[in-house]
What we know:
By secondary structure, the chain is mainly alpha-helical. The chain has helices at residues 2-10, 20-32, 38-74, 79-104.
Amino acid sequence: MKELVRKAFALGWGALALTREAVEKLADELVKKGEMGQGEARELVNDLLERGKKEREEAQKVIRQEMERVLGELNLPSRDDLLRLEEKVDRLLQRGAEKQMSRHS
């Protein structure tokens, strides 16, 4: 039964959405039914939670890569581009202010 549960989660995004509470409830049910012992249940909980964590990390990585690809295609300025532009505007404004002060002196 334990292997069946693991295989079921391996087939889809099942572990991705699992919470600790849901995994522990599932393991408790299997223990109550005599399908596995307490030690196996703890192992199953830890295994499924770890798998869920890895799947979430992988999903985040894929989403981040896709977002970067789409943003690259849109040819939008990056944060660094905007910061450089802001610094350049600040320097130009400062030069303009300095020229104006030198004219009025």
